[in-house]
């Protein structure tokens, strides 16, 4: 039986600094569709809700999403080389490796898997649930909880966006907001996450105590 608690990590803005690449991808995508291209700030704010819903609100149709995934796949190799991993995140994942660690993301599963293996932390992950698994993170988190057979309060969801904190709260898991990614501390505070950290070092210092609470 896996040791509790379990940890669920968002990828973009938590493990890796991907905002510039996401902005470039959306710029290309919206231009191809003939839609108004969102600027960097608008892209950032789109993550205040589920990104799938935000894209549809800006004119993207369900049929268009297959073109978005094709674009993402075509850019994966070049983008992967440019993405920077946040300091201390590899250390944190290694520290938690005795627990089951999942990545719950709106990005491509294969792209995250390739990046994780290249950066040396793929070995610490039990599974990656990307966009291909399900659009909404509520469903992905509930699926993990069901598969693991754990109480929501035995799970921690680490994310950097308002939209994710909202989705995490709907599942009952402990929400850990981090302010080094897409959304600022002031924005995250308004969602009342269970924990809020300004830097990876702060989370590393506290993680042992969080584990003891759930064990």
Which fold does the CATH topology of the largest domain refer to? Rossmann fold
Q: Indicate the overall shape.
A: globular
The CATH homologous superfamily of the largest domain:
HAD superfamily/HAD-like
Compute the average pLDDT. 94
**Count of distinct structural domains:** 2
For the record, the CATH architecture of the largest domain stands as: 3-Layer(aba) Sandwich
Largest sheet features = 6 strands, parallel
**SSE order, as H and E?**
EEHHHHEHEHEHEHEHEH
Note poorly predicted spans: none
Distance between the termini: 13 Å
- Strand residue percentage: 15-25%
Organism: Candidatus Kerfeldbacteria bacterium CG_4_10_14_0_8_um_filter_42_10
InterPro entries: HAD-like_hydrolase_sf, HAD-like_sf, HAD-SF_hydro_IA, HAD_2, HAD_sf, PGP-like_dom2
GO cellular component, one term: cytosol
Pfam family, one: HAD_2
């Amino acid at each position: 039986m896996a040791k509790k608690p379990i940890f669920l990590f968002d990828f973009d803005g938590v493990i890796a600094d991907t905002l510039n690449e996401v902005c470039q991808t959306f710029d290309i995508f919206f231009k191809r569709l003939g839609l108004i291209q969102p600027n960097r700030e608008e892209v950032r704010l789109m993550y205040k809700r589920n990104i799938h819903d935000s894209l549809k609100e800006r004119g993207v149709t369900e049929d268009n999403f297959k073109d978005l995934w094709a674009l993402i796949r075509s850019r994966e190799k070049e983008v992967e080389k440019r993405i920077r991993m946040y300091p201390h995140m590899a250390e944190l994942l290694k520290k938690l490796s005795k627990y089951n660690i999942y990545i719950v993301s709106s990005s491509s599963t294969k792209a995250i898997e390739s990046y994780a293996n290249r950066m040396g932390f793929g070995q610490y992950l039990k599974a990656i649930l990307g966009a291909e698994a399900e659009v909404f993170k509520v469903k992905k988190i509930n699926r993990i909880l069901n598969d693991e057979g754990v109480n929501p309060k035995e799970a921690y969801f680490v994310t950097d966006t308002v939209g994710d904190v909202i989705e995490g709260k709907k599942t009952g898991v402990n929400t850990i907001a981090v302010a080094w990614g897409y959304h600022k501390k002031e924005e995250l505070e308004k969602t009342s996450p269970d924990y809020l950290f300004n830097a990876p070092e702060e989370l590393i210092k506290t993680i042992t105590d969080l584990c003891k609470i759930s064990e």
